[in-house]
Design brief:
Alpha-Beta Plaits; 6 strands; alpha+beta; two-stranded antiparallel sheet; 2 domains; about 250 residues; 4-stranded antiparallel beta sheet; about 55% helix
Length: about 250
C-alpha cells in the first residue's frame, strides 16, 4: 500500500510520518536549545504523512501539526531562557550577598580577609607596598543607647558612604564588624597614608549626619601599619594596625 493513500482530517495518519513528527516534537521540547534543527526535522517529515495528491484540508491539517511543533518548541525555549536567567541572577545575587556587608553595602570581613591574604602573599613575592588601616567610630555605643539600633544602623550607612566617597577606587574599604572598618591601600607611602587617613577623619568630623530627625556628629580614630615581606598572614598586619587604633 502506498504511503498516505487514505488520509483525511478525520482518519488515522500514517504511522511513520506520525512517529517522526512526534519524535521531532519531543526532541524539540527536551533539547530546546536546538530548536531550529528540530523545527527543520519536523518540516522534513511533513511530506511523509501526506498522500501522493493531498487536498487543501490535508495540507492544512499537517501544517497545523507542524505549527504546533514550532510553537511548543519556541515556548519551551523561551521558558528555558527565562529559567536560566533567573538562576544566573540568583547565583550572582548570592555571590554579592556573600561578599557584602548587609548594613553598609561595603565588602564584608570575609572578603577583606581573603583580599589581605592574597595581597600578603603577593607582597612577599614582590616589592609592592600595602598599608592596612583599622578605623573605628568613637563611642558609637552611645549612639545606639541614645537613639536606638535602627538609628545606629542608619549612621553606619552614612559613615560608610562618607568614607567610600573619600577613598581611591584602588583601595578596598570593608566593614569588619560593629563600628569597625578596614581600609587596604596599595602602592602608597606611609606619610601619604597618614595624610589620607587624617582627611578621612576630617571628612567624618565635619559632616553632621541627619538621621530620623536627629543631627548626629561622629568622630573616628584609626590605626595603620605597612605590610612587610616578613608577614606570613594578614593577622600579623591586622594586629599591628589594631594596636595603633587602641593607641589612637
Amino acid at each position: 500500500m502506498a504511503v498516505g493513500t487514505t488520509f483525511g482530517p478525520d482518519t488515522l495518519m500514517q504511522f511513520p510520518g506520525l512517529l517522526i513528527i512526534m519524535f521531532a516534537s519531543v526532541f524539540a521540547l527536551v533539547h530546546a536549545r536546538d530548536v531550529w534543527i528540530n523545527v527543520l526535522l519536523a518540516a522534513i517529515s511533513v511530506p511523509l504523512v501526506l498522500p501522493p495528491a493531498p487536498s487543501v484540508a490535508q495540507w492544512l491539517y499537517v501544517l497545523g501539526l507542524y505549527g504546533c511543533v514550532v510553537l511548543l518548541a519556541w515556548v519551551n525555549c523561551a521558558q528555558r531562557e527565562r529559567t536560566s536567567a533567573v538562576i544566573f541572577l540568583s547565583k550572582s545575587q548570592w555571590k554579592r550577598d556573600a561578599q557584602t556587608d548587609v548594613v553598609t553595602g561595603l565588602a564584608n570581613r570575609r572578603t577583606f580577609e581573603a583580599f589581605m591574604e592574597r595581597e600578603a602573599w603577593r607582597l612577599a613575592a614582590s616589592s609592592s607596598s600595602l598599608t592596612l588601616a583599622i578605623i573605628d567610630i568613637d563611642h558609637f555605643k552611645l549612639v545606639n543607647d541614645q537613639y536606638g539600633h535602627d538609628t545606629g544602623d542608619a549612621v553606619l550607612k552614612q559613615v560608610a558612604a562618607r568614607l567610600r566617597a573619600n577613598v581611591r577606587d584602588t583601595d578596598l574599604l570593608a566593614r569588619l564588624g560593629g563600628e569597625e572598618f578596614g581600609l587596604a591601600m596599595l602602592g602608597i607611602p606611609r606619610d601619604a597614608a597618614s595624610a589620607r587617613l587624617d582627611r578621612l577623619r576630617q571628612a567624618i568630623e565635619s559632616h553632621p549626619f541627619a538621621v530620623q530627625g536627629h543631627s548626629i556628629r561622629c568622630t573616628i580614630s584609626a590605626g595603620f601599619t605597612d605590610g612587610t615581606a616578613a608577614d606570613k598572614s594578614w593577622e600579623a598586619v591586622y594586629q599591628r594596625a589594631d594596636k595603633g587604633l587602641y593607641e589612637a
